[in-house]
Amino acid sequence: MDLLIVDDEASLRDFLSIVFERESWTVETAATLAEARKAIRKNEPDVVLCDLMLPDGSGLDLLREIKEQNPSVGVIMLTAHTSTRSAVEALKAGAFDYIAKPFDIDELKFIVRKIVQHRELEDENLHLRVELEEKFTFSNIIGKSRKMQEIFSIIGRIAKTNSTVLISGESGTGKELIARAIHYNSGRRGKFVSINCGALPETLLESELFGHERGAFTGAIREKRGLFMEAERGTIFLDEIGETSTAMQIKLLRVLQERAVRKVGGTEEFPIEVRVLAATNRDLTDSIQKGTFREDLFYRINVIPIELPSLRQRKEDIPILAEHFIAKFSGNQGTRKRISADAMRALEKYSWPGNVRELENVIERMTALEESDVLSTRSLPEVVLLGTAVPDVMSLELPADGISLEEHLEGIGKIFMLKALERSGGVQTQAAEFLKMSFRSFRYYAKKYDLISRDVKNEHTKNEEEELNP
Ligand SMILES: Nc1ncnc2c1ncn2[C@@H]1O[C@H](COP(=O)(O)OP(=O)(O)OP(=O)(O)O)[C@@H](O)[C@H]1O
Ligand SMILES: [Mg+2]
């Protein structure tokens, strides 16, 4: 596997090269965007570690270029300690994850390993994911919010019908999970077959879905059954249906109307008895307006719409989801970990642009890396810790539902303290000077907000607390 490291700091490049070469990666390095582009053209990497700020531009631009050319390349952004916004932006632009500098090398190795795992799973899934007997119960889907309860009740009512369902929602909200729940509660005997319509080029997608005759095109050595036939008496899940071309949409519309498929290069029509579920993270009505999605197909699939709320629209689900994932990830580690009340509060406040998947990833990382039994704010990623309290300090808009001023002041305080620490290279007396505060109160707040490392902190904790809070 090939790894590309893009950072202008030579010592960091060298260090990371050594670390990852030892883990049997083939490592390339680049100091600038220009060098990185050249390296990618020469030999496409599987994973890219990319600094956010490069001498000739922003790492985010490189991220976007990479994702445009090949979405399956895993990109990890190296961000500054304080750039919460860029971290969120990176995740939105398709970064697999980000890590704040200075980082723990084990944490970075962990993320890189996760990318590899993720890729292996995707490779298996890309062409065809057929599940034979998956034990599936509703207990896998967590949600006590009214919105989720409503969705559960809809699923209960429609699972046993043959109606087409369109599941929409932001990335990571659980669309696929809901699709499976519908199938496994349908009593249908056939398989659940899922295909990501956005991941395949059109010609390949067509032959995957409908199959092909022998000799239909170069390379079609054998005749092939399509996924629609594979899902006979079961369910086909057309994921990312909004990404299909309009030509493909016409073909899908025909299949849904005629309930029959014709293989690529064939003349015979094969009748099918398949339940169709589709999912999209786009607003399809918007795509219809823009002319990229056919209205007639929309009405065909939107028979039963299920709209999954984003996680920030159902914050009351965050604690039970967090507990669910802690149990899931401490399962194979012996003791079940606990989460501190502070850390839980931070999880509840964060806006979760990546929804349940992001929460799941954060908890997995925390449980894997935390050595004690308690997940505290210290094991939270920076973006969660800070992102929460600063939705829009820059624009200074008062959100419609108001804000908690106290929390915001705290958030702004944390950010300036981190910035001061960064500028002083970690020297706290100097950081305190930048903020025109006494060293002692700097230490008090740094400790309170968990901004300094534990070992240093413990030496002072007791006395300071007594002095400041007599
Ligand atoms: N309500 C939930 N309870 C428990 N786990 C959930 C819930 N919703 C989502 N998840 C978990 O979050 C992850 C993402 O879910 P899923 O793949 O279904 O999302 P998606 O909407 O299909 O995302 P994408 O648009 O990115 O494909 C999965 O690991 C899933 O198990
Ligand atoms: Mg999905």
Radius of gyration from the CA trace?
25 Å
Strand content: 5-15%
Task: Look up the CATH topology of the largest domain.
Answer: Rossmann fold
Strand order of the largest sheet: 8-10-13-16-9-17
The helix content, as a percent range, equals 40-55%
Overall pLDDT? 85
What's the level 1 CATH class of the largest domain? Answer: Alpha Beta
Structural class: alpha/beta
Q: CATH homologous superfamily of the largest domain - what is it?
A: P-loop containing nucleotide triphosphate hydrolases
Structure in words:
The radius of gyration is 25 Å and the shape is globular. Helix content is 47%, strand content 15%. It has four domains: 2-113, 3-Layer(aba) Sandwich (Rossmann fold), CATH 3.40.50; 128-307, P-loop containing nucleotide triphosphate hydrolases (Rossmann fold, 3-Layer(aba) Sandwich); 314-388, Helicase, Ruva Protein, domain 3; 399-470, Arc Repressor Mutant, subunit A. The model is unreliable at 126-137, 391-395 and 454-470 (pLDDT under 50). Strands 8-10-13-16-9-17 form a six-stranded mixed sheet. With 470 residues, it is α/β, with parallel strands linked by helices. Strand 1 (2-6), helix 1 (10-22) and strand 2 (26-30) form a beta-alpha-beta unit. Adenosine-5'-triphosphate is lined by residues 141-143, 169, 171-177, 281, 321, 356-357, 360.
